[in-house]
Task: inverse folding
């Protein structure tokens, strides 16, 4: 690990003021410290924000909830209000990593989790995300774990987070504060970005912006939800493909639907076409299958990840079925 | 007591300490044979059978501090590391992980380095009561936090019930992932009491305290600790026994003569 | 120690060193409190084939706290190989940093020694290498098959005429099975603390065989063997990767010599992919022929594996095919392809684990085609003679293993037709595989030290044996307890120090038989000598306390040695077993889980069922890993391992496993050795991948011939001909 200045902080203002070029805020460290050990992340200052107080869950005036960015994933997923009102989010969060890592990882940090692309991790290999202009090793190399949607010539990596997939299905806003202490809200769908020709940028955060909270709108999919995670071992593995499915039913038809996929794109992939198709339809196998066809219609796999198209369809149908059949 | 060889040589010229006596009771050595035994022992076995029991503090005091030129570091940090109920003032490199601080500076080598990247769980400790990975925790962030390691859970003479259960059910082989497994298991007892959910929990909206975890729940919740020797089944049994309070029976048996005869003559 | 009430061999006592392991007190290599130690970090090459053209160490050297940067330019001269591509063994020299040649991606090209671990790690990245990259690295297995060569005369075997046997068959099958590169990955990272004093070096090192380690280190440095002491009191798993001295250990010894302080090197998990051995890729072509009644007529097993371009290692996948079944026409071949990868080396049941997967799968394929129960098919072709050597087995209870296991498992509930046993989205399958593993036994020395006080005798056993999780401490204590007639509590076992009497070390499933018979020998000699001095007849029963008293002694030492008998050499000595798996496969997602397993083992006298059970489930777990997800992939353009961490290389986690019932057959194989012990550490792994793959066929009708069986492969795989969807 390269040397860096460690700056402890007690308040968010202190943290924001400490920010300088090439600083990183240090939350749980589960991703950042790992990447520093790998010499992928090379900050010259770490601003420790672990002692800051935006680590609470509170109810908003509109009936939604505000999740403090510094709250751990396990505290968030286990919070009674989240389990009751947003069980899809709890389930997705708890599918991730391990109890130890979830105890460390923060909500803000999870939003910023970087890709697991092995070309990104191995500093002797080309990677435009790690080292802009060096090329993409995965495109003509080993790409079984890579994107089938929304990639660019410069990067085909995927976002590895489970939490993000659930948030994409549920809908959310991210509250951030700038170094001048002003704040702004970023719709979740705009928080992460596609690689384009700037794959080094995972998100639309600006330098120095500090994530304060994730805002959820009023409770949704509390009765019919499922987070399906297909992986190479039964636990402690990133998803090959994951699907977050939530639905609400009225008079036997789907009145509201949230459907998003993980492991397929540079950002959590909202399956908008499938959602639109399913709205107002009966929750049956035939409709689920049609929605899955629509969802995967635009997939453009590489040599090694062709399996993701078929697996994706099966995963959508299964997640929708599980969500529907769940006894409310 | 920084060198087992020297320690052995010194034995003739001094009395055994109380700590040492306790240890020998532990390993079943009595009377004058203690001293004789110690002298016969090799350096290696000495540090296995004796010195390790009582030497962590002593070893720690003799472990090297940082090099003399503090300007080596961009950021030299002074912290008070509170480990197993005692406070250790340390001057550290900002890059030092909690894991390396424990192992290389405090001689608390019970916490293991299995991957150093948060991918195996061998370095699991409890920080403020929660199980966390010491390899991805920078020591600098631990000021004012309470760290509990395997050494703080129990000692050979006074084991934590989970340590006893692991011994009884052979929940280990090489022993390297074991401290992490045990710290994880102890923390899990608390998580179950608190009613925390896991990915395999049936219904997230059902919130109860004092969960009685199913085998699948236990396995999922202990999946963050890799055991390459493959002692998982014994680990699950050890956990179950402490969790439920009921005796767990072994799942091995010997074939009976009747079975043998039947098989042969089938 | 409190729960140790029982004594003697055969009792399920707790591990005698267990209290140290569960409290974190057991000391592994990098944990010895050696004064003034400093830290080193090795540097790896970033090309697969070529030469170093220049090295810039200046940036690293000017960093405060850096003590030395070692490269081939300033490294100590070591003994190097005198022939091209020498075969690797457990005591082979390990020259490192001797020239500018690069043989594979990840090869050590330098070492930084520094005051602290953090500085060493950082400085290692500051050493800049430029390379001349050769254009033709051998990194794509499929394109290199034409370069496969026959390593030696022992690579091939045949009896009868396989072509004729296939022609006589009513049904024949020709299938190719592949297994990927796998890594041992013991949880303890390989490590060494090397310390020189007065021309002698002490190495606290994670090694399975300390005697061979002293040979390899002394040979490499060209110093007398007695100037090298290796201490490995506790070894955090090995599985073959710590059999030999790997190059980090040589680097540690070299660095310590060069700077004059003790040096600690801990190999990183990433380096454990490239620098501590691996199980090589194998392509196994199986041909099998049988009559309609199930009589085998032919069996051929042709294996192509890779070795490195600079050393040779051959894992014989076909070993098991030569001896397991009664088949008159049999052919086994092995070919090697030199590749620009790290040299492979023995991983748990080398040859048997991978070979059994192919053999036991093709046996299942044939049983399916014959419409025969796979257990009955195996039993029909059982043999009590090792046809490959034309000599009897010392004992072989494979049929008993299969039948007793079938009953325990509930095999009668298995559906012969795939895809007919379902539960919701799950397809349920039962699979079986036979297990077999050679059970060697080697010359072993030991020393016993008796110490009497107030009528109570304490005994210390010293051997250079290691306990790599196998239970050596415990079973040796039990052996001494039995042969000295004193409780286990009064036995102190000291292992893992090359100053102690020589043993073969831990590997190849010979540990238990060798160590215990070695310890037995010293105890028997002590008793016998003490009796002789007092003219007491050998058969007379006198306690050891009484004997010492009669001799007017308070202490006594004896040395013993055990070695294989002539009878042993005239027999084929194997452990046998059978594994039964119930596997549930998700019909859509391709995810699958092991629901339960039953394993039956016939492995001679079981010294301690608790630790023996551990060995069996340990083998099964690692074997489950072979089936579930373990694979190391070679990047086709750069030649590095794209799976480079525990996040990419998936070893099994707790949730991957399920209940395992283990049945030991009551057996004492006195031909094997005096105590009737056979090996058990590798038996488990030889049966599990096959039984899982067969269960997956039974569940899905898909024959998975390429390990691991990942969800994406299962989704893609076609139904086998004749299976109803």
Result:
């Amino acid at each position: 690990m390269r040397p860096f200045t460690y700056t402890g902080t007690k308040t968010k203002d202190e943290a924001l003021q400490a920010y300088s070029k090439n600083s990183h805020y240090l939350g749980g460290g589960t991703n950042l410290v790992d990447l520093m050990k790998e010499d992928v992340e090379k900050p010259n200052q770490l601003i420790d924000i672990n002692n800051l107080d935006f680590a609470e869950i509170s109810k908003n005036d509109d009936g939604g909830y505000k999740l403090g960015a510094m709250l751990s994933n396990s505290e968030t997923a286990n919070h009674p209000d989240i389990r009751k009102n947003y069980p899809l989010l709890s389930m997705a969060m708890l599918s991730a990593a391990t109890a130890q890592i979830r105890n460390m990882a923060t909500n803000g940090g999870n939003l910023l989790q970087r890709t697991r692309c092995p070309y990104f991790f191995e500093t002797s290999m080309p990677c435009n995300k790690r080292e802009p202009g060096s090329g993409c090793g995965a495109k003509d190399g080993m790409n079984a774990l890579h994107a089938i949607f929304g990639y660019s010539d410069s990067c085909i990596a995927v976002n590895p987070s489970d939490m993000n997939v659930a948030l994409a299905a549920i809908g959310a806003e991210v509250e951030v504060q700038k170094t001048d202490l002003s704040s702004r809200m970023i719709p979740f769908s705009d928080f992460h970005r596609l690689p384009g020709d700037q794959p080094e940028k995972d998100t639309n955060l600006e330098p120095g912006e500090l994530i304060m909270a994730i805002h959820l709108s009023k409770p949704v999919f509390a009765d019919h939800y499922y987070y399906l995670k297909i992986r190479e071992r039964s636990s402690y593995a990133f998803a090959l493909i994951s699907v977050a499915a939530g639905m609400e039913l009225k008079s036997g038809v789907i009145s509201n639907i949230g459907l998003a996929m993980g492991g397929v794109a540079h950002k959590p992939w909202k399956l908008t076409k499938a959602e639109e198709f399913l709205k107002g339809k009966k929750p049956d196998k035939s409709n689920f299958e049609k929605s899955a066809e629509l969802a995967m219609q635009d997939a453009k796999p590489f040599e090694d990840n062709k399996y993701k198209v078929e697996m994706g369809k099966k995963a959508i149908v299964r997640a929708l079925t599980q969500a529907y059949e769940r006894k409310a | 007591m920084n060198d087992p060889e020297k320690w052995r040589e010194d034995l003739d010229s001094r009395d055994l300490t109380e700590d040492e006596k306790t240890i020998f009771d532990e390993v079943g050595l009595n009377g004058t044979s203690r001293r004789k035994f110690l002298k016969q022992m090799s350096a290696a076995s000495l540090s296995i059978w004796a010195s390790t029991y009582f030497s962590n503090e002593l070893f720690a005091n003799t472990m090297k501090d940082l090099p003399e030129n503090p300007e080596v570091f961009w950021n030299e940090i002074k912290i008070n590391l509170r480990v197993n109920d005692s406070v250790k003032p340390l001057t550290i490199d900002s890059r030092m992980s909690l894991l390396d601080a424990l192992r290389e500076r405090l001689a608390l080598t019970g916490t293991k380095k299995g991957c150093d990247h948060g991918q195996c769980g061998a370095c699991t400790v409890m920080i403020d009561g929660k199980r966390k990975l010491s390899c991805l925790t920078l020591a600098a962030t631990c000021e004012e936090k309470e760290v509990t390691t395997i050494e703080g859970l129990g000692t050979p003479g006074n084991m934590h019930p989970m340590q006893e259960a692991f011994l009884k059910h052979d929940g280990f082989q090489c022993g390297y992932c074991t401290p992490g497994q045990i710290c994880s298991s102890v923390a899990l007892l608390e998580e179950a009491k608190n009613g925390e959910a896991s990915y395999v929990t049936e219904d997230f909206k059902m919130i109860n305290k004092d969960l009685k975890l199913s085998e699948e729940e236990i396995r999922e919740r202990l999946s963050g600790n890799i055991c390459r020797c493959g002692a998982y089944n014994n680990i699950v049994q050890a956990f179950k026994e402490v969790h439920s309070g009921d005796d767990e029976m072994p799942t091995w048996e010997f074939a009976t003569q009747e079975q043998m005869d039947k098989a042969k003559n089938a | 120690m409190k729960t140790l009430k029982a004594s003697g061999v055969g009792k399920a006592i707790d591990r005698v060193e267990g209290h140290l392991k569960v409290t974190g007190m057991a000391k592994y290599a990098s944990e010895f409190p050696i004064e003034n130690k400093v830290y080193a970090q090795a540097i790896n090459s970033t090309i697969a084939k070529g030469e170093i053209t220049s090295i810039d160490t200046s940036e690293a050297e000017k960093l405060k706290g850096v003590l030395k940067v070692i490269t081939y330019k300033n490294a100590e001269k070591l003994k190097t190989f005198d022939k091209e591509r020498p075969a690797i063994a457990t005591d082979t020299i390990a020259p490192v940093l001797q020239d500018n040649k690069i043989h594979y991606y990840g090869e050590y090209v330098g070492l930084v020694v520094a005051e602290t671990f953090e500085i060493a790690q950082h400085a290692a990245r500051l050493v800049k290498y430029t390379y001349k990259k050769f254009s033709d690295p051998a990194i794509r297995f499929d394109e290199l098959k034409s370069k496969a060569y026959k390593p030696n005369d022992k690579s091939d075997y045949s009896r009868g005429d396989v072509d004729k046997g296939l022609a006589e068959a009513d049904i024949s099958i020709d299938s190719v099975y592949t297994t990927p590169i796998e890594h041992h990955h013991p949880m303890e990272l390989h490590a060494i603390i090397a310390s020189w004093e007065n021309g002698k070096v002490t190495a606290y090192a994670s090694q399975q065989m300390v005697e061979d380690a002293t040979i390899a280190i002394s040979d490499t440095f060209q110093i007398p063997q007695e100037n090298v002491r290796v201490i490995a009191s506790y070894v955090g798993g090995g599985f073959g990767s710590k059999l030999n001295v790997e190059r980090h250990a040589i680097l540690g010894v070299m660095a310590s010599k060069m700077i004059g302080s003790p040096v600690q090197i801990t190999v990183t998990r990433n380096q454990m992919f490239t620098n501590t051995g691996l199980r090589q890729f194998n392509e196994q072509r199986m041909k099998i022929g049988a009559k309609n009644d199930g009589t085998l007529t032919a069996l051929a097993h042709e294996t192509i594996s890779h070795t490195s371009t600079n050393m040779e290692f051959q894992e014989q996948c076909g070993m098991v095919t030569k001896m397991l079944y009664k088949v008159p026409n049999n052919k086994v071949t092995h070919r090697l392809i030199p590749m620009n990868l790290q040299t492979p080396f023995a991983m748990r049941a080398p040859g048997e684990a991978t070979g059994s997967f192919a053999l036991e799968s093709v046996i299942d394929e044939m049983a399916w085609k014959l419409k025969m129960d796979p257990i009955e098919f195996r039993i029909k072709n059982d043999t009590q003679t090792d046809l490959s050597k034309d000599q009897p087995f010392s004992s072989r209870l494979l049929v008993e293993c299969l039948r007793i296991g079938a009953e325990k498992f509930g095999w009668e509930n298995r559906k012969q037709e795939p895809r007919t046993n379902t539960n919701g989205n799950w397809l349920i399958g039962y699979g079986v595989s036979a297990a077999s593993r050679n059970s060697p036994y080697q010359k072993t020395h030991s020393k016993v030290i008796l110490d009497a006080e107030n009528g109570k005798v304490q005994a210390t056993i010293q051997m250079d044996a290691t306990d790599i999780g196998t239970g050596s401490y415990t079973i040796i204590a039990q052996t001494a307890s039995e042969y000295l007639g004193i409780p286990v509590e009064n036995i102190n076992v000291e292992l893992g120090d090359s100053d102690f009497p020589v043993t073969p070390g831990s590997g190849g499933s010979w540990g238990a038989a060798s160590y215990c018979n070695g310890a037995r020998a010293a105890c028997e000699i002590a008793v016998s000598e003490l009796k002789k001095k007092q003219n007491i007849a050998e058969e007379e029963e006198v306690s050891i306390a009484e004997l010492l008293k009669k001799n007017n002694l308070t202490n006594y030492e004896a040395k013993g040695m055990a070695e294989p008998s002539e009878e042993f050499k005239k027999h084929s000595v194997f452990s046998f077993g059978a594994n039964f798996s119930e596997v549930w496969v998700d019909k859509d997602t391709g995810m699958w889980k092991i629901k339960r397993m039953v394993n039956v083992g016939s492995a001679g006298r079981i010294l301690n069922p608790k630790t023996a059970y551990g060995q069996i489930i340990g083998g099964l777990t690692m074997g489950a890993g072979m089936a579930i997800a373990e694979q190391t992939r070679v990047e086709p353009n750069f030649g590095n391992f794209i799976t480079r961490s525990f996040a990419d290389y998936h070893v099994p986690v707790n949730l991957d496993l399920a209940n395992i019932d283990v049945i030991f057959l009551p057996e004492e194989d006195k031909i094997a050795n005096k105590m009737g012990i056979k090996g058990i550490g590798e038996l488990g792994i030889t049966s599990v991948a096959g039984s899982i793959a067969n269960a997956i066929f039974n569940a899905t009708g898909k024959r998975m011939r390429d390990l691991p069986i990942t969800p994406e492969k299962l989704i893609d795989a076609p139904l086998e001909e004749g299976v109803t969807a």
